[in-house]
Design brief:
Helix content is 63%, strand content 0%. The protein is an all-alpha fold and 199 residues long. The protein has one domain: Orthogonal Bundle (Hypothetical protein af1432), CATH 1.10.3210.10.
């Protein structure tokens, strides 16, 4: 592969050894979905595939290891530390660069922000974020189909993102979990974009 220092075969072997079965299947599904979305939006298909494969590469690291890598190597906002389930995103970007030789900034940024997202994401970052949510191997089909329908509308990427953020906020509130203010800011930003508030 052009974007890693190891072969696809070796990368898949590493993922299979370091992820549980469901997460491995999810990663394959995300990579496949990312390729489809990249083709739809005329983006680099191989780059999307690599980002999809690697987006969760640190997902199964113990919480202590995630925190240790962050403390020693990364700059992470305080609000990101509210929920340990999102810590794998910056660490996965770190592992992708350090262990797999990924230098492409779009890939690293898409991996870095695939959980929380950020304001003014690029189309590439958006498709990796969405592929993670709608891949066919482990995600609920009815929800995925709903997102895919939104993607066929004008302004579809933003409409789909807004739908995802609505669901995330609703889920966090229902479980009485803290919501990072970045999530609220992105939701408000998406509402402000043209036509998004109409859905």
């Amino acid at each position: 592969m052009n974007y890693t220092k190891i072969s696809e075969e070796d990368l898949l072997k590493w993922l299979k050894e370091n992820l549980n079965e469901e997460r491995y299947s999810h990663s394959l599904g995300t990579a496949s979905c990312a390729k489809e979305l990249a083709e739809k939006y005329k983006l680099d298909i191989e780059k999307a595939y690599v980002a999809g494969l690697l987006h969760d590469c640190a997902k199964c690291f113990p919480k202590e290891k995630l925190k240790e890598i962050i403390d020693e190597n990364l700059s992470v906002e305080a609000c990101e530390m509210l929920n340990y389930k999102t810590l794998h995103a910056p660490v996965s970007a770190y592992v992708a660069e350090k262990d797999f030789g990924v230098k492409d900034e779009e890939i690293l940024s898409a991996i870095r922000w695939h959980t929380l997202g950020k304001i003014n994401m690029t189309d590439f970052e958006k498709i990796i974020f969405l592929a993670d949510k709608i891949e066919p191997n482990t995600r609920e089909k009815s929800y995925s189909d709903e997102i895919k329908e939104l993607l066929n509308l004008p302004n579809g990427l933003n409409l789909a993102l807004l739908r995802c953020y609505k669901e995330t906020i609703k889920s966090l509130a229902k479980r009485e979990l803290k919501i990072c203010m970045v999530t609220i800011d992105i939701y408000n930003h998406l509402l402000d974009l043209k036509n998004v508030s109409d859905i």
